Records
---
Amino acid sequence: MNQDKIIQQTKQWVQSKLDNESSGHDWHHIQRVTTQAVEIAQVEGGNQFIIILAALLHDLIDDKVVESEEEGIKEVTNWLVDQGVPKKEQETIYSIITTISFKGGNNDPVTSLEAQIVQDADRLDAIGAIGIARTFMYAGNKGHLMHDPEAHYRESMTVEEYRQSPSSAIGHFYEKLLKLKELMNTNEGRRRAEERHQYMQQFLSQFYDEWGNEVPF
């Protein structure tokens, strides 16, 4: 098994699938997550081949991106088989990519170091300046409001509520993004999340200052 060749071919395949994706889960997101995962692994350890493949493939089964999670899983599984990835590694990658998503905070904590690293890398790309940009991109893609001053933000949600009940871009900060710093798994993930979390808080403060009160006409 030529690991470098498998990684390169997987990069090309994923890029071909996500190049024109417009919800913030595009190829550039995958690149950033993979880079962060490798950097975290250099500090924390873990099997880099597993980490890289899981980071590259994680959004190809996400129902925010694909029409059918089941079909996405089948496609990814077939890809790994065709690339000659051993069964044990296939199962580990499958376990990672099916358990790291936030989904309203309903998933159990991941346990393997590789899953923790990929999850941290994915969550880091959901916060900070990039996370803010992706939040508004996703809201626009789904037709959600930028901000609803009358909204009551949900502390807990089922998977169905998280996916199907529309929030606003600003609401997403309270329902997910501001929670992620405390949900990081690794010391390096927590260290990287701190600055990004503070940046989001500063952004929200500035946003509310600029939003102001409604002007009567």
---
Amino acid sequence: MTSVGFENYARLFESQRFQTDIRNTIFFTLFFLVICIVGGFFLSYLLYSKLRGESFLRTIYLFPLSLSFVVTGVLWRWIFSPEVGINSLFRMMGFKATFGWFTSTYSFMGFNVALIALIIAASWQYLGYTMAMFLAGLRGIPDQLIESAQIDGAGELATMWYIILPIIKPITFSAMIVLGHISLKIFDLAYAMTGKGPAFVTDFPGLFMFETTFRGNHYAEGAAISIIMLILVAVVIIPYLYSTLRRDSE
């Protein structure tokens, strides 16, 4: 065996495909986090406000979480198919143009539009997860605290900004960590729904690693991709572990 040092990593970062994969991962993670955190909090606040049919709505929100990413990928692949699904509905409404959802090669400021389909599918599945976390946090806030703020003249927005959001800040941080590491190592949803796509518009490091290692038999390059994915996940997980251990020690 001959040691090649960091040659595999250097070759990897020179690869146009891997550069696209990293860019896709960053955009996917950002939009996935924002939609799940903001949307999950909005849904939880609706349920916290004693919305009618709360049990029924909570079940609907949590249902996608019971599915695997493979099932979700197959389901949304049909929904975003160029021939059926949403495009078929548009044609029934009189629109002649069809959108290539996960086959589009159009990009805006480095963001591949084809990622929108994947972001919607992933967010649909994990909105219920963040909703459940935030709802548990909201239910844990003492009613006396909210009532005291309202007696002092605080409106709903002020109560949310100065009381509710600071209290559920640790939950928000935990949700970001969990969702972040899921998005950084995503494989099954993209594999089942779109694959790498034309010009790698829906490609991710997990897909690249799978094809390089198990189809191309380039195990050294595949191992390099795996190590980089491990580092990306560690960058997200280590701060969370540090803050958790620090709180426990205090």
---
Amino acid sequence: MSDRPWPVAVEAVHLGRRIKLRPLRTRADRNEYLQLRRDNSDWNRPWDSSAPVPLPTGMSFAQMVRQQDREAKAGRLLPFVLEVDGAMAGQVHLFGISRGALLSGSAGYWIAESLAGQGIMPFALAMTMDHGFGREGLHRVEVNIRPDNPRSLRVVQKLGLRDEGLRERYLHIDGKWRDHRTFALTTEDLDGESVVDRLNRLSRQSLPRHTE
């Protein structure tokens, strides 16, 4: 399917903070994005995807954004940058989107080290999945996580994603083919509930109960 609605933005308030997902802008975002990546290079390096075959170098930030926009308009990618209270904080993508009989996509994400562990990423991922299930009409969204990434495993646990097992040497990460566990939700799992509401419900259930 071509000519999907793009650009689009999604925003909400969570725990008193304004969470926004939007496309990158070629000029206005360049300096802030590159600085954010530099500041978090050590934090992200173990989990960043890599190329098994060397690729030509030299793609500029503007070229990257234009390429992502083309893929988004073609319906194959949702490349969101994550803002928290108006400041750039990370990214959430839905990629590998398939239409037809599959109607599925995969989610990937990262957040600045200074904001990790504050409940922002589970909420941002829930917003992204709701957009995929809703406006994009997907049936299934999966997240593939290295078994040695406890922070990311905690994100999908908070959303109640189904563990579908191990995929050996599934993705090329940080220079090597790495095993990943696959977690997923389908519209049947949600049974009419949004992923954001599912997150909030599961969060309430996990709170400690005080007894007299």
---
Amino acid sequence: MIAGLMKSRIDPLWEQAASPLIAIGMTPNQVTAGGFVLVALSSGAYLYPQSSVAFGLCLAFAFTFDALDGAVARRRDMITKAGGYFDAMVDRYQELAVFAAIGWVADLWAIAMFAFAGGILTSYAKARTALEIPVENYGWPDFFERMERLVFILLAADGVATAMGAASPWILAGGLALYAVLANATALQRISRACAMLKRADGKQP
């Protein structure tokens, strides 16, 4: 929702932040790959110190770096369909790495799987619709999209509770469960919109 409704305001900020990467000649795909490596390393490191604060801070840096690939593509006039596809696939693997780490450390596999599924289904609902009818990439301002999911997992499920001295397995479990509910509710919201669009395309009333 944030990315869809505020794209025109957010993009110039990302493009300004991408200047150092452009200066050293990085390509959009290199930024995407670098973001994945940083997320994977952060998730792997979480398995041993098991510090939620450190995990949250590392992920904040990794996801911020990853978000600059689109800005680099726009600034360098390197926007391609292959690059967009690569970015989308890498995003899903990043989410898998994060939830696998949380599931392992907190032994919350069932909730982590439900949370991961919500993000996957949200993405797939639009992608599958695009196989049937043309769709606008930013015409789906749903409640709990990727930007909201990243902010939530960083602030609520990883770092804030521990930083405030409220460290508890129940804090992480509750935050992850709420994430899962919101992600799957958004998937259902998107599925409902897609069904209405497809019915209109069929010449039927939604």
